[in-house]
Amino acid sequence: MAERRVRAAVVGTGAIITVGHLPALAAHSAEAELVAAVDIDPARLTAFREQVAAVEGIGAPTGYTDLAAMLATERPDLVILGTPPALHRAQALAALRAGAWVWSEKPLCLSLAEYDEIAAAEREGGPYIAVVAQHRYGSGTVHARGLLASGDLGAPRVAHCQTTWHRDRAYYAVPWRGRWATEGGGPTMGHGIHQNDLLLHLLGDWTEIRAMAARLVHGIESEDVSTALVRFANGAVATVVNSVLSPDEVSRIRIDCADATVELTHLYGHRNEDWTYTPRPGLADEARVARWRTPAADRPSSHAAQLEGVLAAMRTGTRPPGGGADARRTLEFNAALYKAAFTGRPVRAGEIAEGDPFYSAMHGNHPDWAPKEAQ
């Protein structure tokens, strides 16, 4: 791969591929080309290929309705998964076993057990799997994480993580949404996972979680709102809210440190201007405050920003950003949130292991939440 473009294939040709991944591939067309596209709907596949043809330099993908046939014929270097969550496990395993690296939309899979099965199919030096976590890669996030890690803002003390969005009944009319077996959960897994991941990216390891969940409006299997209290290894405590019931939609992270509050307010993506830094009262170090507020560049959070790191990892045979134990930590956080909410007791990091019902399913076979066929 060091002397040629990476040969990429997409699986699924829906909105997340066209809106997120096509621009990313176009931005890196000097390093990667799209050689194949897979979709079970021939008409949708044809429309997608026509759309790609209008993007200069991205490639001319061959269309397939079968993943196995595509892998055997094209032997791609990178497979990008944009299919519904329940399909990710089998598709990721097939791609890895065919020798392709995988970049998958969140959630990568529906349980910690599935994650560990996928991770076991990775090989030293690649192929590896990475999970889309585009909010980590905007310049504002890079700047904030550096300040937090260096201690320049003072010790983190209190944090808030908010994903309060709105989804109507038509949204849940899509058969795979709101069901444990196909989506893996409600807004905790399908929506708030992005902000939850970013919170962990900024604050590091969590140690304990207490939570509540409810099904207040939608007639679905999973929750439509969840809340949590979280303790981090660095001593900080945080509140987390995930909702699809909120008319005023916002995504927000706020971290109160000893010397400043850093806050990100956006919806589906952010730029430097979406980050604010508020010094503590009485702090008079103007040069220090200016350093907080002036990142060197303004790069929006995007799939393109993360793809740069994935391609670099492929060329060096190293684990890509958004993979490995780091990605597992986010999935474990969600499993622990569900376990804490459904059992009514605190859950500690590391306690959900093989044999725990929440290791194999996010609903943990809880009688009030699991579908009848799973109990």
Automatic annotation (TrEMBL):
<dbReference type="InterPro" id="IPR000683">
    <property type="entry name" value="Gfo/Idh/MocA-like_OxRdtase_N"/>
</dbReference>
<dbReference type="InterPro" id="IPR055170">
    <property type="entry name" value="GFO_IDH_MocA-like_dom"/>
</dbReference>
<dbReference type="InterPro" id="IPR036291">
    <property type="entry name" value="NAD(P)-bd_dom_sf"/>
</dbReference>
<dbReference type="Pfam" id="PF22725">
    <property type="entry name" value="GFO_IDH_MocA_C3"/>
</dbReference>
<protein>
    <submittedName>
        <fullName>Gfo/Idh/MocA family oxidoreductase</fullName>
    </submittedName>
</protein>
<dbReference type="Pfam" id="PF01408">
    <property type="entry name" value="GFO_IDH_MocA"/>
</dbReference>
<feature type="domain" description="GFO/IDH/MocA-like oxidoreductase">
    <location>
        <begin position="143"/>
        <end position="262"/>
    </location>
</feature>
<feature type="domain" description="Gfo/Idh/MocA-like oxidoreductase N-terminal">
    <location>
        <begin position="7"/>
        <end position="126"/>
    </location>
</feature>
<dbReference type="InterPro" id="IPR052515">
    <property type="entry name" value="Gfo/Idh/MocA_Oxidoreductase"/>
</dbReference>
